[in-house]
Amino acid sequence: MAIRKFRRNMKPVIWVITIFFLISLIAGYAMSFKSHSSNTQLAFKLNGKKVSMVEAHRSMAIMAENYKRYLGPSIDPELMNTVSFNELINRNLLLEMADKLKIKVSSSEIKAQMDQIKAAFPDKEQFKKALLSQGYTTKSLEKEIEDNLILQKVSDEITKGVSLTSEEINDYYQEYKYTMFQGKPLEDVKAQIEEALKLQKGTEIYTKDISEARAKMKLEDLDKNFDAYMEKEDFEFDGMKVTNVEYAKRVLNTLAMTKGNLEEAKEMAKSSIESEIKLLKAAEAQGIKVDSVLPLDLQVANAVKELYGKLKSEVKFTQEDLKAFFEENQLNYDVMKSADANIAILKVQPTEADDQKAKDKADQILKEVTKENFAEMAKKYSEGPSGPNGGSLGTFKKGDMVKPFEDAAFSGVSGEVYPEVVKTQFGYHIIFVQDKDEKNETVTASHILIIPEPSEETLNSKNEEVSQIVKDLTDKTITFEDLKNDKNIVFSEKIDGITEEGFIPGLGYNEELAKAIYTSKIGEVGFIKDQKDYIIYKKDSQVEEKKADFQEFENQVKADYINAKAQEALKEIELSTQNTEN
């Protein structure tokens, strides 16, 4: 929903600390382990390095909370613990790799991340309390941040160290020339190809390094609470061993498909793993060999890629086959009328007067609303996505909502409308606290949201500013790329394939904008006023409708024909591996 907090306050890293972690009840989760932990109690030693119970419990709890956020609270804890414990092992192995690579982070980098975390709290005292509740000191949190940044640099270092051959780049280009790259010359997309290949190969190197490090690692003094989560064989199928970790990950990923039905997810996970093993065996029968050190899913991905390439090389065709294929798929080759344009969207912000108008409206609604008529009033007045549902936000806990809303909801009286209008970055809220569960620290509430919007007067006041931007673009004193630095410009990109009917790829349908672009001359800059925004455009080119000719598209037809036949053959192989019940 719109007012759920987006809490990613640190740069994404392999092991992510979030503000959500600092304000969630992870300490309670850690207590679900049987033993009472302390900072000095040992969880295990990995290659001689000691890992404390506090670090292990806290680390596993972070991952468990992330899983629960996406898969729901009823998720099986044993599955989560199995995956989380082994990710903890991987984390420490990666830190060991970082030492060997001599990867370091500066104190200024750590301070920048620390400042971001501190900024999420009202004052220093609240920050200290949060640290204490999670078993952190300022020093240990800084160490955690340092480790996270190091892990990110390990990932970057692996990707940076990947070398590519011209043959690999060309093969990738030929594979996607007429699909992803839409026939563009190699030089135009070479950088994009290199980035994709480096990421792909870097991921494989990283995964292989971890697998090899796990095979050589020395794990000692393991606390008995973690025995059940150690990686071990879960089952064997067709000569291949599947670990409990691989199986647990697959079950967790399948839970969303089964809407939380654990038993069904377990059956689906096992069935899909067995099908993949069959596919690997089918690829082997075709002479395809993959690195068995890699995890099963990556082995399968590589095998399918190799198998697909082999199947493509075996496709035979005649000129008549290609012409028949072309005629059957004529519409895919016909050139449709389209235009390309640079488009920028200037978002007009409401003024203080606009904001006051929204507040006045909310204040008036508050005078009229009651707990009995709240749902109807929400349907009538609320400008939020929950309005049609009577303003219902369901049940939430602390940390799920932005702070002003959360404070009001948790301090409000159960069964009553909160007596004041509450302002957040989303607008003005009238809150009905339907129920409070003190034991579980949750609130069930509904709200009516009034969003400050720029008035027509405010919009018109921007005409002069937009006209100046159009002039500067026309005079080439600025570019559409420069507009990205304007805080009021929320979008500025070149868009290809704009249809005369009004479809703007990436932005949806806008008939007025399409009409303005099509009636403009090439290179002409203009703007339209679109509801609460201004849209600035520059027409770059226009292509007229043209019936495709086979001779012109013969190379593309050949590539498409080969891909289609190879896909058919691959589909037959995949279907033959699917598990079916008698």
UniProtKB/TrEMBL annotation:
Enzyme class: isomerase
EC number: 5.2.1.8
Pfam families, per the entry: Rotamase_3 (PF13616), SurA_N_3 (PF13624)
Domain PpiC residues, every copy: 336-435
Keywords annotated in UniProt: Isomerase, Membrane, Rotamase, Signal, Transmembrane, Transmembrane helix
Catalysis performed (reactions): [protein]-peptidylproline (omega=180) = [protein]-peptidylproline (omega=0)
Ribosomal protein as UniProt keyword: no
InterPro entries, alphabetized: PPIase_dom_sf, PPIase_PpiC, PrsA_foldase, Trigger_fact/SurA_dom_sf
KW Transmembrane helix (keyword) present: yes
GO molecular function: peptidyl-prolyl cis-trans isomerase activity
Parts of the chain that traverse the membrane: 12-31
UniProt-listed PANTHER family: FOLDASE PROTEIN PRSA, PEPTIDYLPROLYL ISOMERASE
Protein name per Swiss-Prot or TrEMBL: peptidylprolyl isomerase
